[in-house]
Every structure is written in structure tokens, then in C-alpha cells.
Known about the structure:
The chain is 47% helix and 12% strand. The protein is an alpha/beta fold. It has one domain: P-loop containing nucleotide triphosphate hydrolases (Rossmann fold), CATH 3.40.50.300. It has a 5-stranded parallel beta sheet, with helices on both faces. Helix 1 (17-28) crosses helix 7 and helix 3 (55-71) packs parallel to helix 4 (86-95). The radius of gyration is 16 Å and the shape is globular.
Amino acid sequence: MSTPHVVVVMGVAGTGKTTVGPLLAAALGVPYAEGDDFHPPANIAKMSAGTPLDDDDRWPWLDAIGRWAHGRAGLGGVVSSSALKRAYRDRLRAAAPDAVFLHLTGERALIERRMADRKGHFMPTALLDSQFATLQPLGDDEAGVTVDVAGTPEEIAERGVAALGELDRPHEPELA
Length: 176
Ligand SMILES: Nc1ncnc2c1ncn2[C@@H]1O[C@H](COP(=O)(O)OP(=O)(O)OP(=O)(O)O)[C@@H](O)[C@H]1O
Ligand SMILES: [Mg+2]
């Protein structure tokens, strides 16, 4: 049995991090933590006032998520964090070197539709544009997997478990 993963579920707003994260955690038998819950009070005040966060606001938040992830090292866990920029993921990895990323991706039209149906949330299209503009997908040198968000949350979680399982497989030797 391999060491349980500490998984950061990442992706643009509306890809289903909060929906799929807990299902993935349940399937892996590990705890789930919601990334939004790690904001320091200053960030919450700013967001409540409708002021967008800048990167200086994000570092302490990412550090708090990183501390949680580090605390789950060897035990396993799932935490959500959009982690759109490589620099954000570098910051998370600095705290939790063993963390792996699960990038939820999907067609923009699908994500937009799901966002529009979301209760109690309002996200103008421009915000989704800026999310996609900011997104830096996982590099080849970053430990992680990419999972498409078509289908039901349960299907996506299953896909995630399978993709994470592949990370543990020793690489086949190259065929000549
Ligand atoms: N596979 C799915 N099928 C149908 N609806 C979904 C699916 N996944 C998520 N949704 C719905 O899409 C909306 C966005 O999902 P969710 O809130 O989980 O996204 P998020 O990535 O956590 O977004 P944010 O970055 O804003 O926190 C919600 O209303 C959710 O119920
Ligand atoms: Mg969310």
C-alpha cells in the first residue's frame, strides 16, 4: 500500500473544487478541508467589502493551507485551493513538499453554465475571463494530475482516484 496522498484540488472558479473535493476525500478515506476556510480575518473583511484580493493577501492564506497539508503528510488529505498560478503552487509546496495537485479542467461553456445555476453566488462573466487568463496549468515538472469535469461529481471523483493511482505506478521502461 502506497503512502496516502495529500491532494490540493485546484482549478478556476466553478470547476467543482468544493463539490468534488469532499467526494474525492471520502473515496480516499481521508479528511477534506475547504480552502476558503483558511482566509485570515483581514482577507474576509476585504472580500466582504467587495475588494479583490491581491497576491500579498494570498500568501498568508496559502501558507495556512500549506500548514494543513503539511500536517497531513503521510496520513493523506484533500484540500481545495484554486492555485491558479505556479507561484501559488510553489508557495504551497514550500510548506507541504509532498502535496500533489489535482487540476479540475473543463470547457468554459460548461463551467459558465454551472456557475450560472449556482445558488447564492454571483459571478460575472468577466470574472471567469480573468480566472482563465490567470490560470497557469500544471507544468511537466509538477506532481499532479488533470481531470475533466464533464459528468456527475461522483464520476469526477472516481476519475480523480484513478488518475492519482496512476501517479503511484512505477514508470514502465521505454520500449526500444
Ligand atoms: N459535476 C457537476 N455537475 C453538475 N453541477 C456541478 C458539478 N460540479 C459542480 N457543480 C455545480 O457547479 C457550481 C460550482 O461548483 P463549486 O462551487 O464546487 O466550484 P468551485 O470550484 O468550488 O468554485 P469556487 O472557486 O468559486 O469556490 C455549484 O453550483 C455546483 O453545485
Ligand atoms: Mg469552492
